[in-house]
C-alpha cells in the first residue's frame, strides 16, 4: 500500500481513493486504510464495521481483542462466539490472540466452526492444542458444504479404527448428497470409506434438496451395487415432489415407471397407463408437492392428480399425511414458506380440497407457525377457529424466542401467559417481552395487545407481577447474560440474591458480577459461584470472584464438590490447582475419596501428592499453636514462628514438586472497564 516518493494519500482524488478501497478487503479498509489520516476516515465512512468471520488485520485484532478488559466484559457465550467467528476467518494469529484473551479452554464449538468454514489448517492447529473435535457433527457439516479437504483430514484421524471411520464416512456421504456435491460423494464411494447400503438415504436427501443430476447419478450407483440399498419408489417420489420442479419430477416419475419421458402432454393417456402405479403417488406425494419451496407447486399437484392417479379429494379426503421423508412434517415447510402470502395461499388451497382431517393438520400448522414466528398464518388460522387450546406449551415457545407478535396472536386466541413463560423469556434475555407484558413498550405490538382484549392483557400483566413476586426471576434473567435485563428487574423491585450471583458466574459475565457486588448482592457462603465458573474452566470469572472477595466453604466442601459432584460435571485439574493456590480450604481425605470418580486424568495422583505436604503443614501449624499457648514468651514466640515457617516451607515444597510435573492455570485477568460487542459478526470498533 506504499506510494511513490513524495506522494501522499491526500494527493489522490476522492474517486481514486474509492477505487483503491474497493479493491481491498473491507476489514483492511476499516482497520487500516481509513485510520491513516482524518481525511480518509471522513471519506471512507462506508467501511466502519469489522466482520469477525473474515480475516481481520492482526494489528487491529490484537489491539482490540487482546485487551482483557474488553474481552472479559463479554459473557462467556459471547467470548465463545468470538472464538468461533475468528476460527471461521481462518486467521490463526488472531485465533491465538483470542484464545489467550477469553480466559477459558477451547470448546468443540470452535472446532466445528473451523470445520464448517473449510479451514484445514485451523482444524490442525486446534487439534494440536487438544481442542475437543466434535468430529461426527463437524464432518457432516463440512461434507454438506463441500469441504472435501476437511472431510479427508477428519477421516484420516480415524485410520486405526476402520469401523468408526466407516460410520463417519457414511454420514459424510449422506450430508454431501444433501449439499449437492457429487465429487465428494464419488470420492467417498470409490475409496470404499462409506457404507454403500446408505445410498438410499443419500438418494432421498439429494432429491429433497432438488439436486436432480446428483440424484440420477446416485440412483445409477445404487442400481449397480449389490449392497446399494433398496430404493423405495414411494419415498423417492415424495422427496422429488418436494425438491424438484415439474419437468424434472415428470422425468423421474416416468423413468421409475419404466417408460422414459412421456412428459405431461397427454395426461389422459398417461393416467390410463399409470393406473396400476397409483399407489406410488399417494397423499404423501401430493402433500409434498404442496409443501414444496418451488414456485410451481400447484402445477405439480395438478399433474399428480390428473396424470399420476394421485387423489386427495372425494374418497381420499379422509387421509391425513404426517411426515415427509427427509424433509419433516408437512406443517413445518408450509408454515415457513418463502413469504407469508405464499404460506397463506397454500394453506387456503389445502383447506379448499375438502379434507375431512384438515382440522388436525391445521392444529399442527398452528404450532408450526408459532415455531417459525409466522404471525399472519396464526392470524388466518385463529380467525378461522383452526386451533386447539389444549395444545400446551405454545406460549413458552414464543416466549423463548422473544416473538411478541406471536404472543399477541396467542393471547387473542385465548391462550394464557403464565409466570413460567415470563421466567423463560427472562432466561433468554428478552427484555422487550417483559416490557411488553408490563405495558411499558409503546410499539405496535403493545397497541395490538390492547386490541387482543383487556382481559387477556390483564392476565399477561398479572403473570409478570406473579413472576416478579417470586424469588427466582432475577436469577433466570442473570442466566441470560443480559445486564440490562437484570438492572431493569432490580429497578422494578426484584431483589438481587446469591442465586443471581451464582447464575452470573455460571454464564461467565465479569461485568455483571462486578455490578452485583457493587450493589451489595449476597454472594453466599458455600463457594457455589466458584464451582459454577470452575466447571466451565472460566479463569476470568474465577479471578474476578477472588478479587471481589467471594467466600468459599471454610470446611473444604467447595473443593470437595469441585473434585466430584454427582449432579454436576467435575472441575478440571487446572481449576483444582488454582483453588489450592488461592487458599481454598481443602479436606484432603474427602477429596481423595471423591477423586476416583473424577474423569480427568491425573487428579487422583495429584491429590495424593498433596496429602503429605498438607499433613506436614497442618502438624507443624498445630505444634506451633500449642507451643505458643503453653509458653507465651518471646523465645517461645520465636520458636513458634520457626515452626510456622517450617510448615510453610513444607507446603511450598509440595507445591513446587507439583508445579514441576504439569502446567499452571492461565495468567491473571485484568478488571473490566466498559462493555464490548461480539454478539454479532459485525463489530464496530470505533
UniProtKB/TrEMBL annotation:
<dbReference type="GO" id="GO:0016020">
    <property type="term" value="C:membrane"/>
</dbReference>
<dbReference type="InterPro" id="IPR036770">
    <property type="entry name" value="Ankyrin_rpt-contain_sf"/>
</dbReference>
<protein>
    <recommendedName>
        <fullName>Ankyrin repeat domain-containing protein</fullName>
    </recommendedName>
</protein>
<dbReference type="GO" id="GO:0046513">
    <property type="term" value="P:ceramide biosynthetic process"/>
</dbReference>
<dbReference type="GO" id="GO:0071944">
    <property type="term" value="C:cell periphery"/>
</dbReference>
<dbReference type="GO" id="GO:0005783">
    <property type="term" value="C:endoplasmic reticulum"/>
</dbReference>
<dbReference type="GO" id="GO:0004620">
    <property type="term" value="F:phospholipase activity"/>
</dbReference>
<feature type="region of interest" description="Disordered">
    <location>
        <begin position="655"/>
        <end position="686"/>
    </location>
</feature>
<dbReference type="GO" id="GO:0030149">
    <property type="term" value="P:sphingolipid catabolic process"/>
</dbReference>
